[in-house]
Amino acid sequence: MSRYTGSKCICCDKRFVEGDDIVVCPDCGTPYHRSCYTEKGSCINAVLHDKNVGWMPDVPPMPQATPVPVVASVKRCIRCGAENPPEQRYCQQCGTPLINMDAPRPFNDMNGERGQGTAQNGPRPADNGTGPQVNAQFGDGFAPVMLNQDSDIDGVKLGDLARYVGSNPIGFLPSFIRFAKTGRKLSMNFFAFLFTPVYFMYRKMKVWGIVSVVVMALLSVPDMIVMLASGEYDLKVDLGIDLKSGSFMLISQIVLYLTLVLRLLAGFFANYLYYRQARREITRIHSKSDGKAPDDVNREIIMAGGTSLGYVVLGFLLYTIVSTGVIVLIGSLK
């Protein structure tokens, strides 16, 4: 006897009998009459697909018993659709966490509308040279939220933000989404904390980069004075400053604390400043996009964002000029 005999076809609500021509969904195992499946064109048992569980035969429940769904033998990635072993915690194909697989996964944009074109409903779009295709799940602290590249993030599309960021979009987009949804401005960026001027210049944040380069160069002057007076690197310069005086030691302590405070501020607010710049640049590009092809607009966004080693080199040159200029000025007043 077939394991499907006696169960109902969810299309026509008729029970299967011996000899029925039955086809089965390859993802969830739901059986159909072949004619019903052909009429629908695909599996309509969305509940099982959403919960990633397999179909079970219709067995009359025992008194006081509660049917328990059986988890499918594989975990299907909600981002790329790849099948993974049930014990796998991260997708072997794209690295997306395979957690909360039994929780609802609505395809919501920032306005609460339901989006389309997800990895679960079809193949992931290919990268056509206009930047990364976004189709990812982010937690909002309460429930997982599925977003696609057309999701609205405070007036701009998630896909445009990903194109602007360029490298490592998954490292930035969750913070961008939290900024838009909660209005908060704090997040931690350790690279911005440790290498403040380098980070701002590398991410093409020119104004903040130049400001941080100049400020950090000025704050480095006491250390440079100590270094020159000690004769490090076979270079000893007497600037006529008493390094053991109370005033110089006080200035050194103040500079140390100011440097730490500025680095902390950069670490906590760098992502938000980058998010504001990305939104501003994307909005500006779209405002001047009348008559332009979408691919051309996407390329403009990519070129406006991303990273730049050239700006980093320019920052180092500016840092050297400012710090050296101050030292020369102090030496001239000797």
Which helices and strands occur, and which strands form pairs?
Blueprint: E1 22-24, E2 31-33, H1 34-40, H2 46-51, E3 75-76, E4 83-84, E5 135-139, E6 144-148, E7 152-153, E8 156-157, H3 158-165, H4 169-182, H5 190-194, H6 196-202, H7 206-219, H8 221-230, H9 246-287, H10 294-304, H11 309-332
Antiparallel strand pairs: 1-2, 3-4, 5-6, 7-8
Short account of what is shown:
This protein has 334 residues and is mainly alpha-helical. 44% of the residues lie in helices and 7% in strands. The longest helix is centred in the last third of the chain and has 42 residues, at 246-287.
Structural commentary:
Residues 61-65, 101-130 and 139-144 have low confidence and may be disordered. The N and C termini lie far apart (103 Å). Helices cover 44% and strands 7% of the residues. It is mainly alpha-helical and 334 residues long. α9 packs antiparallel against α10 (294-304). It folds into four domains: 1-72, 2-Layer Sandwich (Herpes Virus-1); 74-103; 107-118 and 129-184, no CATH class; 190-332, no CATH class.
